[in-house]
Amino acid sequence: MDIKKSLKFSLLFSFLTVFTAAVQAHSVEKDKMVSPSADFIELIEAYQNRIPIPAEKNGFVYLMGIMAPKDEDPIAYGQAAINWSNNKVANGGKSDSPEPTMTYPLGKSYKALMKEIKINCRIREAAPCALAKHQTLAREAIEQNQWLLKRWHELLDFSNYQNTLSIDLTAILPYYANDIQLQRLKFFDLWLNRNNYLPEKIKHALQKDYDFHMLQAANAITLIEKAIATAALHQHYYWLNEILRSVDHHTSALIVPDYLQQPILRSALSLRKTYAGELQFFISTFKPYNESEYNPIFPLFSDNDKQRIFNQQAQFLKKLINISESADYQTLTEHLMEDHDVIQLLKVTEKLVEKYGGNWDEFNDNMGGYIGKYEDVLIWLNATFINRTRQLVAIQKAVTILNAIRQQDIGKDAISEWLKDPKHYNPIIQKPYIWDGDKKHLIIKTENDIDTYYLSL
Fold first, then answer.
1. pLDDT band at residue 159 under the 50/70/90 scheme
2. Are 378 and 342 contacting, i.e. CB atoms less than 8 angstroms apart?
3. Please, what is the Cα angle at 46 between 43 and 52, to 5 degrees?
4. CA 159 to chain CA centroid, nearest Å
5. Distance between alpha carbon 299 and the CA centroid of its chain, in Å?
C-alpha cells in the first residue's frame, strides 16, 4: 500500500468535504455565533475520552518500536518516537531533533525473495508461485530475521492496542509496513513448514495473528490504520487458505482455527473510532502552522466558519459511521451518493475557493485532481475502507467453504451446483460465490464489483 498516496487522498477527502459544508456558510450571517453540534461533540468526546493504556501494555507503542536496534527496548524506543511526534505537534509542527528511524531492512535474502515474487507473480500468489521454487532463499530470509520475528511474536501477545499519537498533519506517520512484512515472513515460515510443525503450533500461530489484527482493526483511529489492519487480515485469510489446501485432510482438520466458525467482531467492522479520529485530523488542517501548497486556504477561515465546517464534517462522518455499521451498507451508500449537497458540490466549489482567495483548478490539480469529482472520491472511500472492511466477512466464509469442499471431496464439476445452496452464499451479496473452474478458485465480489478477491481450491 502507498502510504503517501493514502495520506494525500485522505487530505483530498477532507478538503472536498469542506466545500459541501461551505454551501451552508454562504447563507449564514458572518457574525452569528456557531456552536458545536451534537455530532461534533459526540465524535470529539469519543476520541478524547478513551481510557489511557500504560505504554508497557500497549501494542501500538510496541509496534512503533518493533524495529529498534537489537540492544534497545521496543517499548522505550516506540514511546520515545511517540513523544517526539507529540512534542512536534505541540510546538506548532517544529522539532529541533531529527525524526526517529522507524524502519529496518529485512536483509538481502528477503529483498531478493520479494523481487522474485513481484517479477513472477502477484503478492497474494506468493506461496504457489515463488516459495516452492525459492525455498532456500525464503528459509535464509526467515533465519536472518529471527530476532525480528521474535519481537513480532511478542507484539501479538498484547491484548490492548491504542494509537497515542497526536493526530495532526505534521505528526509522524507510523511505518505500518513493518507489521505487514513480518506477518508475511511468518506466513512464509508456516507454509514452508506446514508438514514439519505440529498442527497445534500452526493453529496457535494463526489464532494469535488473527486476534491481534482484529484488535488493531477494532481500535484504529485513522483511515490508514484501519486500511493496514484490514490488509493484514486479508493477507491472513489468504495464507490460512494456502496452508489448509496444501496439507492432507486429517492435518487440515487439526489446523482449522476456531474463529472460522465465529462471527467477526462488530467493532472490527465498524469505522466509528476511525472517523472520530479522522475528525481530529480534519480539524488539524485548519491550524495556522499547517498552511502549505496543498492547504493554502483553511488557516484563513474565521472561527465561526471553522466551527460551521467542523459541524458539517461531523455530520458527514456520522453518516459514514452508520453506513459502516449497517447490514444494508451498500444500499445506504447509494443513497448517500444522491445527497443534495453532493450533487450541488461541483456547482459551488469554484466560487467557494475564490471566496477564500484560491483558484480551484490549481488547488484541485495540487490535490490530485485526476480523481475528478467528489462522487468519485466518495466511491473510492467506500471501496477502500468501508467495503474492504466488510468484505472480510465474505472472505472468512469463503475460506470455510473451500475447506468444506476439500474435506467432502466434492468433484470440481459439482462445485458450482453445490455453491447454489443458500447456506453457502456470499453473505455480502446473498448470492452464490463465483466458481472459476479453469483457474480453480472462488471469486469474492461485492454487488457493484468495486473490489474482487480470489481464493484457490
1. very high
2. yes
3. 150
4. 19
5. 29
pLDDT at residue 345 is higher than 50: no
- Measured in degrees and rounded to the nearest 5, phi and psi for residue 43 equal -70, -35
How many CB atoms sit inside 10 A of residue 13's CB? 21
Residue indicated by cell numbers 458545536: 36
pLDDT band at 447 (very low <50, low <70, confident <90, very high): low
Has this prediction a pTM greater than 0.85?
yes
Cell 515474487 maps to which residue?
Answer: 117
